[in-house]
Write a structure and sequence with these properties.
The complex is a heterodimer of chains A (794) and B (233). Chain A is an alpha+beta fold and 794 residues long. Helices cover 36% and strands 21% of the residues of chain A. In chain A, strand 15 and strand 16 form a beta hairpin. The radius of gyration of chain A is 27 Å and the shape is globular. In chain B, helix 1 links the parallel strand 1 and strand 2. The N and C termini of chain B lie close together (11 Å). In chain B, the strands form two sheets. Chain B has a nine-stranded mixed sheet, sandwiched between helices. Chain B has 233 residues and is of the alpha/beta class. Classes of the chains: A alpha+beta (794), B alpha/beta (233). Chains A and B meet through helix 9 and helix 11 of A and helix 1 and strand 6 of B.
């Protein structure tokens, strides 16, 4: 029995049956046997455990055809992880192409690197570029929340480093089960502590993100981590293995037995209830090793000592060698005995599949090797030369002096299987969409509306998430211009000019359940608006598409709708999608999660001094509502919290309007006419008003009458509708005329709905109700601590 | 110009921030490397925040044995001003340059918040520009910031005025007697848990009643040592 088996050491619990019987089935003395290329050719009849490794019978046949023989056990290990859904995008590829195709000259003019590399790169001017990406680490974070979430941060940060950039910020989008469900606290405590521990120890400010609780994520929480890096244009590096004779160098942490099959077994399958634990397939992180690796890589780039650096994430050495070789112009030879091991008893197959963290692979010119080794030695980073780039066109790997892998690297890394999965519009959808919120009672009395506002303000998804965000360092690096609780995070890039970027993450699984296309577009619109209200101009998009099993035609339909919606939306906004990640198989039993496409929008601001906060700071400013309120309560937080209702159709999105809104705020921000701006989304105007009061503790008097008259809506709708394209701004009195002129000139709907009041710290909605600041704060801040423990200073 | 060294250890995080603070305060920052035996003749030394050596063993324990620490201890003995911030404070207690020690926050989690403090000793090399009992707000961010010492030591350092800054309002980590920072008996070595280097530049510090992120109360630590150097010159 070999090591990659179920039972004896319990390392991989792949599927309930059969025992994989190892990758070394062919001998009674497994410890001495190496399945060489020669042996594979000579023993075509040998049975191989491809199914246990996640390959389908026809995929296994395809591998045999490509090679003209059965794969060796090492090759089988490589193909199984690289052809996994997680690594190969085999179910999503045909749809993701739209992101590259639906572009205009304007949308790609600042795009330096698009999809396909480790992360996209955008020119932000003054010789600077920004690279960013959001990625999922969902399954590991359920099984082992602390390590799963921690290594999620670690993995995305290594993607950023490999582009030649210095990572400067992280963010996360989290989805947990019901806040009061017994298992939720375990996952919340673990995941938040994992992100906190890893991100803080790397010295990266966590500048925002979002957290949702919903029973649909009970058995399948989502942990999506985003990282942003900055670089000078000339420092851009692509992960390609070129230059015959250049060395292939592995450096960083030693390779161990953790995370074997993480990509193929965890991320590309659904959990079986009552099945065996998959905990050993979760990677274990060491943030200190990664911090040292960051500094080491940046010094290697700065000294021009590397041709390329590729991070080792999913599929480990299999992925790094095959991708580097496939992106290069020749071939590559690697001697696997040179890999430094944490556990000397690992088999070749395990070494190829291990997802041990904090490792990097570099391509180094021979004459620079000594200088390279001097840098890694300065940082106490262990390094070994594994092989070199050659002109064979093949990826060859030796082990104990024998050839165990001889493949065309593109067949492993690029030309994996592509599926056109069956797609079917769910037959339950019509009934769901017909069940609108119109039948839900809408109160008109002040007391009832006051009660509803407070119920929403303290509901888990709208409550103050400080319990989470206080565990993250938002100050480190000294360039954080905005972070939670403002709508977007903002970081200064250039200390002289003040040039910076803003970034926001958004998703709304409820809207996507009602209509995945509209839901994805709403997420894009909201992230776009969140960046716009900070004063920045949206410039690029990354996405993390979280869905159920692609083998379910209804899920596939949701996926196709969401991707089309996003791609079309980006085309209308004329901003490019620079990269992202697809996470399938998020479901419990046969029940998929709500489709949850998480959208990250990155914006640019010439000088972060012009940033706009999200709340009121000054007495006597006029409060304006930009945009129109429609009766759009279907799928809203109001329908959820007060009526436990999900049905109908999501709000409409008009990207031309969103664009006009963003440009209006950017202009107002630049002229310093706008004292604050806050996006209206979940919870509508009521939530935005409360948050604007709470931000700096400045109260306001507002009136709804003009909204109700102009837009023909009732008070409930005015307060709680979630119509898109709306922003609440405050304007100093002396800038009032100029601000009105700006809105009129652009024809954007605007209404003055109130005035800030520093003397009376309360939210007063005229003729309806009044809530003191203390009560707002108590309700908003109490919810998470009540479930997870007190916050310091509360 | 006053030259202030900032030591980078493996796992230091706020080293560039400390250098920026030194520059904004009007001195020249000098990058020092933990593995060298060379202080580059600096006038004062900052041991910055971070997670040196991943906080393995105990926070600051391994770093306190770094080659350069022998030189730092020697310099401290000669009266050279040394400021340890957060992880730097932990190193100074591990190196026995300061009394007491730092343990895991009593609530068990990492905490990042804008912290009110009172400066109680303005005679140290790093606090001379503050007024006696001045209240300040600077960011705090730590997982192991609980200050401890035996009661005899606590009484002694209280009696000798070695408590430099104390937490006000909220004790964020269970520090005994709300102690946020201490000094040695000579007043040249200071360790503090909160991060003054993150409150030195308007726009990037804590919120104040006047404006968002406009707090620069941390600057006084760096201007203090510069004034001290100029006065001694």
């Amino acid at each position: 029995m070999g090591r990659l088996s179920l039972g004896a050491n319990g390392r991989i619990k792949a599927r309930p049956s059969p025992p994989i019987g190892a990758l070394r089935l062919v001998t009674s003395r497994p410890e001495l046997f190496v399945d060489t290329v020669e042996n594979a050719a000579a023993t075509p009849e040998n049975e191989q455990p491809y199914a246990a490794l996640g390959l389908k019978p026809d995929e296994y046949e395809q591998i045999k055809q490509l090679l003209g023989r059965r794969p060796t056990s090492g090759e089988l290990a490589m193909y199984s992880v690289m052809w996994s859904e997680h690594c190969s995008y085999k179910s999503s590829k045909i749809y993701l192409r739209q992101f590259g195709e639906k572009t205009t000259e304007a949308s790609t003019k600042n795009l330096m690197v698009g999809m396909g590399q480790n992360a996209g790169v955008v020119d932000i001017g003054e010789g600077w570029a920004v690279t960013f990406k959001v990625e999922s680490h969902n399954s590991p974070s359920f099984i082992e929340p602390f390590q799963g979430a921690a290594t999620g941060v670690g993995g995305i940060v290594r993607d950023i480093i490999s582009m030649g950039a210095r990572p400067v910020a992280v963010m996360d989008a989290l989805r947990f089960g019901a806040i009061d469900a017994p298992d939720t606290a375990r996952v919340v405590h673990g995941a938040v502590a994992g992100i906190s521990s890893y991100g803080n120890c790397l010295g990266l400010p966590n500048i925002g993100g979002e957290t949702w609780f919903d029973p649909i994520y009970q058995g399948n929480p989502l942990v999506n981590a985003l990282a942003v890096g900055v670089l000078r244009h000339e420092d851009l590096h692509l992960a390609n293995a070129t230059g015959v004779g250049n060395k292939v160098v592995l450096f960083g942490a030693r390779t161990g037995g953790d995370g074997i099959g993480g990509a193929s077994i965890l991320a590309s399958d659904s959990f079986e209830e009552g099945g065996a634990t998959k905990r050993p397939a979760v990677q274990v992180g060491d943030p200190f090793a990664e911090k040292v690796l960051i500094e080491c890589c940046l010094e290697l780039f700065a000294g021009e000592l590397v041709e390329a650096i590729q991070d080792l994430g999913a599929a480990g050495i299999s992925c790094a060698t095959s991708e580097l070789a496939a992106n290069g112009d020749g071939g590559m030879h690697v001697d696997l005995d040179s890999v430094l091991l944490r556990d000397p008893s690992l088999t070749a197959e395990e070494i190829l599949m291990s997802e041990s963290q904090e490792r990097m692979m570099a391509i180094v010119a021979p004459d620079k090797l000594d200088a390279f080794l001097a840098v890694t030695s300065k940082w106490d980073v262990e390094t070994s030369v594994l092989g070199e780039v050659d002109d064979s066109g093949r990826l060859t790997i030796d082990w104990h002096g024998e050839r165990i892998v001889d493949v065309d690297p593109t067949t492993v890394a690029v030309d994996g299987p592509i599926y056109e999965r069956p797609v079917a519009r769910p037959d339950w959808l019509d009934a769901l969409q017909a069940d609108t919120a119109a039948a839900l009672p809408r109160p008109s009395s002040g007391d009832e509306l006051r009660h509803q506002l407070l119920a929403l303000l303290g509901s888990p998804n709208l409550a103050d998430p400080s319990w989470i965000t206080d565990q993250y360092d938002r100050y480190v690096m000294g360039n954080t211009a905005l972070s939670f609780p403002d709508d977007a995070g903002m970081v200064r890039v250039d200390e002289e000019s003040g040039l910076g970027f803003a970034i926001a993450l958004d998703a709304n699984g409820r809207y996507c359940q009602l209509d995945p296309r509209a839901g994805a577009r709403l997420a894009l619109a909201e992230a776009h608006r969140n960046v716009a209200v900070s004063g920045a101009t949206p410039a690029a998009v990354s996405d993390c598409l979280n869905f159920g099993s692609p083998e379910n035609p209804e899920v596939m339909w949701q996926f196709v709708q969401a991707v089309e919606g996003l791609a079309d939306g980006c085309l209308e906004l004329e901003i490019p999608v620079t990269g992202g990640n697809v996470s399938f198989y998020n479901q419990t039993g046969d029940t998929p999660i709500h489709p949850t496409p998480v959208v990250a929008v990155l914006g640019v601001i010439d000088d972060v001094a012009h940033r706009i906060p999200s709340g009121w700071q000054d007495e006597g400013d006029n409060i304006y509502l930009l945009g129109v309120t429609r009766t759009e309560l279907d799928g809203s937080a109001w329908a959820d919290v007060l009526h436990n209702h999900l049905g109908g159709l999501p709000p409409v999105v008009d990207f031309a309007e969103e664009k006009a809104l963003a440009s209006l705020i950017a202009a107002g921000g630049k002229q310093s006419l706008i004292a604050s701006a806050h996006d209206l989304a979940d919870g509508g105007l009521a939530q935005a008003l409360a948050e604007c009061v709470l931000r700096f503790g400045v109260g306001a008097r507002v009136w709804l009458t003009e909204i109700m008259e102009r837009d023909g809506v009732d008070a409930t709708t005015a307060l709680f509708s979630e119509s898109a394209g709306r922003v609440l701004v405050s304007v100093p009195r002396e800038d009032d005329v100029r601000f009105r002129g700006l809105c009129d000139g652009r024809g954007y709907p605007v209404l003055r709905i109130g005035v800030t009041d520093a003397a009376a710290p309360a939210l007063e909605v005229q003729d309806l109700f009044r809530i003191e600041l203390d009560e707002l704060a108590r309700v908003h801040r109490g919810t998470l601590p009540a479930h997870f423990g007190p916050t310091v200073g509360a | 110009m006053t030259r202030i060294g900032v030591v980078t250890f493996p796992g230091s995080l706020d080293d560039r921030d400390a250098q920026r603070a030194v520059r904004i305060a009007g001195a020249e920052p000098v990058a020092l490397w933990h593995g060298d035996h060379d202080l580059h003749n600096v006038d004062a030394i900052v041991l910055p925040g971070g997670f040196s050596y991943g906080d393995y063993l105990r926070c600051g324990a391994i770093a306190s044995l770094s080659p350069i620490m022998a030189d730092v201890i020697d310099a401290a003995g000669r009266g050279v001003p040394v400021l340890g911030i957060c992880n730097g404070f932990q190193m100074l207690t591990e190196a026995r340059l300061l009394p007491g020690g730092l343990i895991r926050n009593d609530h068990g989690s990492f905490i990042c918040r804008d912290q009110r403090l009172r400066v109680e000793n303005t005679n140290t090399a790093w606090t001379g520009s503050f007024e006696a009992d001045q209240e300040i707000v600077i960011p705090l961010k730590n997982g192991e910031g609980g200050y401890i010492a035996d009661s005899e030591t606590l009484d002694r350092i209280e009696g000798e005025g070695q408590v430099v800054v104390r937490y006000l309002g909220t004790n964020p980590n269970g520090s005994l007697r709300d102690i946020a920072g201490v000094t040695n008996d000579r007043g040249n070595v200071v360790g503090i848990m909160p991060h003054p280097e993150h409150a030195v530049e308007a726009g990037f510090g804590p919120d104040t009643p006047a404006a968002m992120r406009s707090g620069i109360d941390g600057l006084g630590f760096f201007t203090s040592v510069i004034e001290r150097m100029l006065a001694n010159a």
